[in-house]
Amino acid sequence: MNGDYLQNELQRLDLLLHREILRMRAHYQLSLDEFRGLYVSDQQVDALLHDRTNSSEAVDPNELTDSVELTNRAIELHQLSRTLLAAEDRWSSLQHQFELTEPEMDVLLLALALEIHPKYETLFAYLNNDVTRKWPTSDLALRLFAEDVEAKLKLRELLLPSSRLFSSGLLHPVPLAAEHAVSLSSGFHPAPEACHYLMHFSSPLGKINDHLTRLEPHSGWEQVSLPPAQRLQLERLPNILSHTSCCKERPLIVFVNHYGMGTEQIVQAICAGLRKRLLMVSAERARTTEEPIRRVLQSILLEQALEGAGLYLYDCDALFGAEGAPTAEAHAIVAALEDSKDPVFLTFDPHARWPELLLGRHKLVFVLEDPGFPERRRLWKELGGAAVSDELADDLANRFVFGPGRIRDAIVMARDRCALQGQDETPTAEDLLEGARAQSDQSLGKLASPVRGAHAWSDLVLPPSTLRQIQEIKSAMQFRHRVYSEWGFDQRLVSGKGLKILFSGPAGTGKTMTAGIIARDLGLDLYKIDLSGIVSKFIGETEKNLDRIFRASRSGNAILFFDEADALFGKRSEVKDAHDRYANIEVAYLLQKMEEHDGVVILATNLSKNMDDAFSRRMHYVVEFPLPNAVHRDRLWRGMFPPQAPLSDDVDFKFLSEQFPLPGGEIRNIVLSAAFMAAQDGSAIHMRHLVPALGRMMVKKGKLPSATEFKQYHTWLAARD
Asked: What is the CATH number of domain 630-716?
């Protein structure tokens, strides 16, 4: 604001204050010497007033009124000349921005005076007849700026807490003490943002506090990765926003996307096109401040209005309650954002209930989809540089469905990991894979159990035909994005672009182990679904649990493994009661979620005939895991003993494999039990340890071991009893 203009305004305020002081003295005719030390003396006030008049002579209040009128005319002429010269005037700009009347500007000036000269604290305390109240009050404003009853009533309405001066955040109320609990005694002070603006204080760039960052956007659309049609729409936004004349015509700009989709770069590009600064606000962090989030946002909206900046609100999960519904506070916040005259951008997670929050609001919604395989591969190559070969880019783009933000984070983490290991700055493929895994959504671990395995393909003991099918499945997982994206098969499919696989066979035949080997070979996480934690007796809860699982699996790039899936995906029953009807609804919902899911789902069942036909038809692959034959059992028995295990020569692998048709899971348990017995004896693992362990396994299955089966080893059956 121009210095001369400010001085003229303050000169007018000084005249009004002087006039009110003289009126007050004439009215009370008090002698205050006996209260010295508890008040502001006349001499002290006169000295402050004489700083302006340079005279100690008595002044007639009527003369001061004439001086106020002359000063008003001088200010009006000064303001007109500045308008004609098109000079910048922040005082006038603020009045225009908030559509303030002259009386409102008078009240704002009264509050602003405190920030300009300390003498006003003393003058205000004197006029308030209270040395502790060194701020302007509603009563003082009425005495200074309103001459008659009608004018006082109109001005008092402008001083209400709901008035424009307070609701906009330009003025803040001073909390009333108990002895001054009358509205006329209420004080006020200017918002720091308004003071800084009017005094031409510079606004620093960068991180201002935990929840607010101020940027001067310079980057254009070259940093943005979007489909061409959507990018063209967004590039038109600056032109649309610059031609909306009021806040009711200007829509809220809403982005719906997962983390890492480059929303910040898009918003910066739009603000750069509008030549506006950008205020970035984390709703989550703003909520953790000592002040209520609405008060925090009010200050930010005031700053936005004064700077004419764009406002980007992110981390908007804070606007929703524990059940996912928008909070009452969130509705008030959105209403305040909608009243902004400058661009407002919001970003929501695709699964948030944002349509409820923005129902009936003027908005433009942009859904940012995860980039396809070719774009992901390009991003890995571009951001990873020499560290990412063509083959590695294919592998990473195929395994991880990431946007540009997560790809960038993964590469940064890979470089940090490389540096910690004392290597050069070029991360290895392993570093990049670990960095990518770390960016995956880890919330799935709260809903399912991760399967950690160290088995390799050489550990699988299966018929050749089964192994070929499993290798085909692994190849399908590895190259599915090439088939869908590069070869165009995704254009033939509306949904169901993921892979659905059924493993069927008796318990212990290697279904879980096979899933773990595939996941390990592809560098993906494998999660086993705990059915007892998913199915709920409460209506709707099972669907919510499943929705969370499929959502976390997609963003976490994990393979879902439903063990004993026939319990959950079993045949639908004939509807006899409400329970049956609801159970069938759950099955139908599962069908829908599997059809929509773009990831990998493996179902394991002991009895495939128990599976619902609708599920079976949706399977891309069905793999049968038979019980091992004698040759395979021999390999399994021998393979269960680690090289460092002390194994006696008397172990008869031929007898064990030919005599007992056991699956690999049971063989593993028998070997482990025998190892514990041998460790207790302090000896190597002998046949005398394996036979009792085998007998107990048979008893556990409900079958009594006989001498006919164990032949020459039957005497050891009772050796450990």
From this structure: 1.10.8.60
